[in-house]
Known about the structure:
Elements: E1 2-7, E2 10-13, E3 18-26, E4 30-39, E5 46-51, E6 57-59, E7 67-72, E8 77-82, E9 91-100, E10 108-111, E11 115-120
Parallel strand pairs: 2-11
Antiparallel strand pairs: 1-3, 3-8, 4-5, 4-9, 5-6, 7-8, 9-10, 9-11
Amino acid sequence: QVQLVESGGGLVQSGGSLRLSCAASGSIWSISLMGWYRQAPGKQREVIATVTTGTTTTYADSVKGRFTIGRDSAKNTVYLQMNSLKPEDTAVYYCHMKVRVALERYADDYWGQGTQVTVSS
């Protein structure tokens, strides 16, 4: 059983910053891809940032230059530093990891519980 627990969401004014964290626990052999998604009211969930084991990162155009994703593989943790926040960043943010629970198993997708980020104008 693998669990992802998020922390760090909240209410912030436009232009402010927040840092999200997501820690995985349980029976973990390895974690390849880590990432962050978000879902705003009435919209589909979208990927905003990913990081590989080799620390290669990708970003959605909407957050490029403002958000930074990082990982601590020793702690099975992924972070999202969000700067220059805008009202349109308001959404529920979800972390995602592709986790192998054993050498002989394929990687499965795991999700955090979601954390609300609200940016006021």
